[in-house]
Design a protein that fits this description.
Blueprint lengths: L47 H7 L4 H11 L5 H14 L3
Amino acid sequence: MTELTQTAIQMQTAIHVKTKVLPGNRVEITLPAHTTAKMVDVFVVLPEQLLEETQTLSILEIIENVRGKIKYRSAEDIDRQIQAERDSWDF
């Protein structure tokens, strides 16, 4: 026999608003009155042309930039760090 349980279902409301980016790269949105003092999630979808302007690096350039920021360590250095961490544990 299947047991049925009663659950509360919360409905989520989405509001789609188009607005202009203000000076200083700010966005102002006016919401309905019932949203006062509540937390909301805001998603900003940039126009395609703005995305193209910001994506000036090729994938190879991005990889090279990341490689330059990674600190390579020897296996011995990593083993020393792991052993030091293990030695700090209280048993």
